Amino acid sequence: MQIESTRFGRIEVDPETIIEFTQPLAGFEGSRRFKLLHEDSAQPIVMWLQSLDEPDVAFNLIDPAQLGLTYEIELSDAEAAALQMQNPADVSVLLLIGKEEEHLAPKPSSPILINTSARLGLQKSGIRAQIIFTNR
Questions:
Q1: pTM of the predicted structure, to 2 decimals
Q2: Is 90 in a helix, a strand, or coil?
């Protein structure tokens, strides 16, 4: 299927790669279906979560490991069921990047969780990230 987006223009989306959020992201109730886009690289730095329901809605995302952050996230039974989580290794954690004053900054307290096997996502609020510094 093809969709039109304001940021990327017309893009081809394989229906088997659509990520569905059973609960909408805060403030974006009209968007439930998304496509995860990234640069053509084995380890992309920035990714985009493009809404398939609202062409104007796209979020910048980053892997928290790129920032030296690690998470231990405890899910409720309802959250685990919403993600259809069978194996925790299937769930990717990504951070939204938003504008704060004059610069972009990650939002570590509200990560996006995506079950890559089931193609289901949710936003988890109120998380505390532990900062781990690594040599790069």
A1: 0.84
A2: helix
